[in-house]
Design brief:
By secondary structure, the chain is an alpha/beta fold. The chain is 36% helix and 16% strand. It has two domains: 272 residues, Crotonobetainyl-coa:carnitine coa-transferase, domain 1 (Rossmann fold), CATH 3.40.50.10540; 84 residues, formyl-coa transferase, domain 3 (2-Layer Sandwich), CATH 3.30.1540.10. It contains 16 helices and 13 strands. The strands form four sheets. The protein has a six-stranded parallel β-sheet with strand order 5-2-1-6-7-8, sandwiched between helices. A three-stranded antiparallel β-sheet has the order 9-10-11, with helices on one face. A two-stranded antiparallel ribbon has the order 3-4. Helix 1 links the parallel strand 1 and strand 2. The two termini are 30 Å apart. This is CoA transferase.
Length: 406
């Protein structure tokens, strides 16, 4: 029994930010009912290749993208553009604790599925709306996608090679990070609203925006600007406030060196065979190293090329200096620590036998995450949910199917 096993979530969202939040709640035990369009379902079901392969090595209908954000859920197909479909969703909302949706602002009002409509039938409902720009402001009605928000929200101005270097220019992060972070913040907001409901007995509306989350997560870089008025510039893999804190070449590749304080720098200088660096007034403190970055970094690069990545990692770890290799995903999933933490799991799947999944990073001692069910097939649980939650019999479900509602 998960920590949230007493809760039911109605997940009306698609793509990533909303489904990511729903999956976190599902991993924690909530009964998450994913409502999808009959025939096509979540947009990401078609976002492939790659697709999950069956035992014969043939592609199934399940895109890897969809599989990343929908485990532990039950899929129900309902066409809520039809009045009967709207009625079914309202009845499910009346028996739910949480609704997650990521339609355009006002998009669900036409179907009577907006917060005010559902609040009237379930005052304790927590209703989380996820949009690109939020429910207010001049951009509220615009569609918002992760890539666009990374650009508009400033992240791409900080990501990529520095000006003047080959390949310089803005670069997006390699995963849809803004969507993921919005899913995480949405989950935090939902849990806060649940805590308030426990005290006050009422639900509330949560207004989450990708842009708001993107700006909030600029963290120290945003403060670097707000305290100086100077927009930070792209530094590639370097850090704006710490030196050395970036990648360096080795005899057989590259490694990452993350020196967090002056003591670590002294230890690094000793391992590098350059103990005088730690006493050089240009490099003795982090403040001076940042000021003299252009002088120090070439010296370090000249030193690191004489040992392999493995040699640097081994020697620096013994000295207590944080560092590490730059792995691709194949190497990462074979890393001893990743294996020890069990970060890859397999769940039984009706089409493929098993489906691989990335494990939840949440480790709870009393209510651990359970991998109860693979990401569902489209409409896999329609009959079961309508029977168990709404009490519909087989004939009623058959009639709804015949009318194209399911």
């Amino acid at each position: 029994m998960g920590a949230l096993s007493h809760l039911r979530v109605l997940d009306l969202s698609r793509v990533l930010a909303g489904p990511w939040s729903g999956q976190i709640l599902a991993d924690l035990g909530a009964d998450v009912i994913k409502v999808e369009r009959p025939g096509s379902g979540d947009d990401t079901r078609a976002w492939g290749p790659p697709f999950l392969k069956d035992s014969r090595g043939e592609n199934t209908s399940e895109a890897a993208y969809y599989l990343s954000a929908n485990r532990n859920k039950r899929s129900v197909t309902i066409d809520f553009t039809q009045p009967e479909g709207q009625r079914l969703v309202r009845e499910l909302a009346a028996k739910s604790d949480i609704v997650i949706e990521n339609f355009k602002v006002g998009g669900l009002a036409a179907y009577g599925l907006d917060y005010q409509s559902l609040k009237a039938i379930n005052p304790k409902l927590i209703y989380c709306s996820i949009t690109g720009f939020g429910q207010t402001g001049p951009y509220a009605k615009r569609a918002g996608y992760d890539f666009m928000i990374q650009g508009l929200g400033g992240l791409m101005s900080l990501t990529g090679r520095p000006e003047g270097e080959e390949g310089a220019g803005p670069m997006k992060v390699g995963v849809a990070l803004t969507d993921i972070l919005t899913g995480l913040y949405s989950t935090v907001a939902i849990l806060a609203a649940l805590a308030h409901r426990d005290q006050a007995g009422v639900g509330q509306h949560i207004d989450m925006a990708l842009l708001d989350v993107q700006v909030a997560c600029l963290a120290n870089q945003a403060m670097n600007y707000l305290t100086t008025g100077n927009p930070p510039r792209r530094l590639g893999n370097a850090h704006p406030n710490i030196v050395p804190y970036q990648d360096f070449p080795t005899a057989d590749g590259n490694f990452i060196l993350t020196v967090g304080n002056d003591g670590q720098f002294r230890k690094f200088a000793e391992v590098a065979g350059q103990p005088q660096w730690a006493d050089d007034p240009r490099f003795a403190t982090n403040k001076q190293r940042v000021a003299h970055r252009a002088e120090l970094i070439p010296l370090i690069r000249q030193a690191t090329v004489f040992k392999t990545t493995a040699e640097w990692v081994s020697e620096l770890e013994k000295a207590g200096v944080p560092c590490g290799p730059i792995n691709d995903l194949a190497q990462m999933f074979q890393d001893p620590q990743v294996l020890a933490r069990g970060l890859a799991v397999n769940i039984p799947h009706p089409l493929a036998g098993n489906v691989p999944q990335v494990a939840s990073p949440i480790r709870l001692s009393e209510t651990p995450v359970e991998y109860r069910q693979a990401p569902p097939l489209l409409g896999e649980h329609t009959e079961a949910v309508l029977r168990d939650v709404l009490g519909l019999d087989a004939m009623a479900v058959h009639e709804l199917r015949a009318a194209g509602v399911l």
